């Protein structure tokens, strides 16, 4: 196991050298990560040098288009798919909305869609709205005590009219990692399509999508060290079955079928900076190894860096009085997003108290109202959410535990 060189990692993120952020530990990564310098540099260079309409036959335009193409190709390599399967949009919420509109042409009254009450509303509400057009929406419900989804509970929801099953790789509240490959195989056997929301999972290592077996996979680049874009991955054959959401004269252009407003050229072009960063991580930690195994090595590097910190955080939180931890107590079963419910105090009141101690966190329902309601919790009160990624340190974790102990005792 190669240990993560945290000094090298933090040198790749300008936020850690920003004077206004010194002395603070960032624990709201689930809402949006720091951007790596490779993305920032590319975005700045694009605006300085390449801010023209791309794909025309003059140098700046040709290079601008080449940068956009490279983002598709290089991120596809990290995800184990082809460049033609990637579709950029302004956010995962927007991508989900457009996708639901595109599906309307495939669905008939009486067709069924399975959604969960574990999801972020972006991956649930857009499909529930199709009930108004005669689509039957079935809900795969969490266990109210744990917030977990039981794969066996999906079985009675699948039938001959099931067309789509929508679920998260992990929740942005309970963070338990769902067995995606097992679920997608079950969905495929029932003759339906699967859509997986990977927003809360992808920051901890971009998955090999071929192994997951999802027909559609969504996540947010601004939570994976990149620009404010959502990325949607779906196979070309499925894309061609969906109704065109772009201008009618662009219907034959795959990249424009699901982007009604057209692509944000600069942000798409800068997105390859995420791949630049991952490349740099691998080269620094595994010098001399071939690029072929890079995606898996980076995946493992991030996972191995986060797991001990997550285990320590869960252990430390478990020792604090007056605090309920949502989701698994075992670090191996969850992502590094930990929601807690303080007993006797408002989660929102803890946020400024923690900020005074240099801990940047957040409170709320985080668009998972249905999950909190299913668990018997008040969405208006919400939870305190503590989320970190590989650039957080063991010292950050200890500072967080100390600060939280102090504010709970106040």
Automatic annotation (TrEMBL):
Taxonomic superkingdom: Bacteria
Pfam (any one): Aminotran_5
Xref: InterPro entries: Aminotrans_V_dom, PyrdxlP-dep_Trfase, PyrdxlP-dep_Trfase_major, PyrdxlP-dep_Trfase_small
Residue ranges annotated for the Aminotransferase class V domain, each copy included: 26-228, 303-400
Keywords: Pyridoxal phosphate
PANTHER family, sorted: CYSTEINE DESULFURASE, PYRIDOXAL PHOSPHATE (PLP)-DEPENDENT ASPARTATE AMINOTRANSFERASE SUPERFAMILY
Protein name per the record: Nitrogen fixation protein NifS
Lineage summary: Bacteria, Pseudomonadati, Pseudomonadota, Gammaproteobacteria, Nevskiales
